[in-house]
Amino acid sequence: MDVDDLQVPLRGFEDVTPIPQDDSADPVVSIAYRHNYTVATDYLRAFQASGETSERSLAITRLVLEYNASHYTAWWFRRRCLFALGMDLANELEVAEDIAGDNPKNYQVWYHRRALAEHRGDPGDELAYVDQVVEEDPKNYHAWSHRQWLLQEFRMLDTQEGRNLELSAVDALLQQDLRNNSAWNHRWFVMHSALGTKGSLSDEAVKSELAYALGYAKTAPSNESPWNYLRAFFRTGGRAYKDFPEVKGAALALQKTEAGAKSPHVFSLLAEVYEKEGTEDSLKKAIAAFQHLRDTLDEVRARYWESRLRAAATRRRQLGGAGGSVATPAAAAAVETASEGAAL
């Protein structure tokens, strides 16, 4: 039991009859709840049954949440009480932060904050709160999800100023940690969420974003995040690598550096570009890159690269080429030779 055991009836609750949890007469496994938690939840069930939304029922929800911050029903009933009583919701956000304590990834707490903002019709200082959480944990999924909901719900990205503010915030995080995949994801979200179009960025905007991603790729060629970011522009919207030759040029240049030569992302990007070009010669280069990935750079995914190699070889045969694969000992040399021939 707790050091300070709650005594039933609670003072000020003498007219309320607690409702125990119904575990049946012969439960298979009876959960050993703490005494105070049992008392608090028994009173919560009583208030739910009566529908009383008073300050004392609100106090009971707080007591329950002190023991179990993930108690979904307690959060739900707490909101009923708050809204019925017309309580100060700004103050409630401080309560939610206090209850969350050392558990910043609690689903129920984040949903509670969302529900309060939605009820108020005002984001208040929620973005500042998210900034605080992200500063402590830059990859907190719940914080990023909450931020994106706020931006959409309150249309903060409808103006160029709003988008610039968010992009600046993302840039600051990437300068601290260029491997922050959550920040890269958020940048994509900001660029595509509210542009006043039906999901199409201008070529100028795309060029700017490709240059941004390539800048980070050159700094750390083995960091997968910027490569995935720039590839996404070619996997959505029907864009082609041939229309943005700077991507291939940057990858070819990186391939000749010490760091780039060891990066599977450089070679997989080039292989993808060569596949898209679709000529017999470019498919030969793709095959060489896939084999180098399979045998040297990314052996963990050797079976995947083998499947890509076989697909490229089949396409090359269909074009009248020899197909097959590059001899294993010469794979790296073949990639280098192919790259030299394709350099811009």
From TrEMBL:
Its EC number is 2.5.1.58, 2.5.1.59. Its cofactor is Mg(2+). InterPro entries: Prenyl_trans_a. GO terms for cellular component: CAAX-protein geranylgeranyltransferase complex; protein farnesyltransferase complex. GO terms for molecular function: CAAX-protein geranylgeranyltransferase activity; protein farnesyltransferase activity. The keyword Repeat applies. The keyword Magnesium applies. Keywords: Magnesium, Prenyltransferase, Repeat, Transferase. Belongs to the protein prenyltransferase subunit alpha family. This is Protein farnesyltransferase/geranylgeranyltransferase type-1 subunit alpha. It comes from Ectocarpus siliculosus. The lineage of its organism: Eukaryota, Sar, Stramenopiles, Ochrophyta, PX clade.
